[in-house]
Amino acid sequence: MTVRRLTASELIACALRDHGEILPDLKLDDLSDKEDVVLRRLGYRLVQSGDRSAFQTGRRMLERASNGRLFPPPHRRWWMGPGKRTADLQAVLHPYSIELSWNEGKPRWELGGRLWLHGVDRDWRWYPLLHVDEAAEWARTNICWIKLGRRMQHAT
Q1: What H or E segment, with its residue span, contains residue 17?
Q2: Do 96 and 147 touch, CB atoms closer than 8 A?
Q3: Do residues 52 and 104 make contact, with C-beta atoms less than 8 angstroms apart?
Q4: pLDDT tens digits, 62-116
Q5: By the 8 A CB rule, do 126 and 112 touch?
């Protein structure tokens, strides 16, 4: 038995059919862009809706649009740079991954990776992701800014 992967158009149609009540202000122009743009637009809206089922559909759409390597939304709140003091910190996540998860009834971006601090391996850890710098070389967590190493490749 083989499982057929839905096309982008089928994912969009299913989202509109199953979660149309969450997208009442959707305009026809919002669906006229390229498929990956529409997948991202609808995916981010479904993820932020507060509904667990819509979150799962939105996450699937975002994964399809990004080919499995998710980044936070392209809003200015997510993309900013670290301060000058951060350059002295010798913490590196290598390799790392950014995940979108459902935690305590709401969506949450998390950053995880093998933490290297002053040359000592601290094992794999997860941190709530607050910001990423524009070049995706640094990420801010609730603890501090952490330098990012190699990004993990996800098989989708």
Answers
A1: helix 8-19
A2: no
A3: no
A4: 988 887 678 787 777 677 777 666 655 677 888 888 889 998 888 999 998 888 8
A5: yes
**Closest listed residue to residue 41, CA positions, set 21, 4, 15:** 15
Tell me the sheet residues that pair with 114: 124
The helix/strand/coil state of 15 is helix
| Cross-strand pairs, 100 | 109
| C-alpha to C-alpha distance for 152 and 98, rounded to whole angstroms | 9
Question: If we measure between CA atoms, which residue out of 147, 133, 19 comes closest to residue 72?
Answer: 133
Amino acid at 52: R
pLDDT in tens, 12-58: 899 989 998 988 888 877 788 888 889 998 999 999 898 999 999 99
Residue 29 token pair:
């122009």
**134 SS3 class:** coil
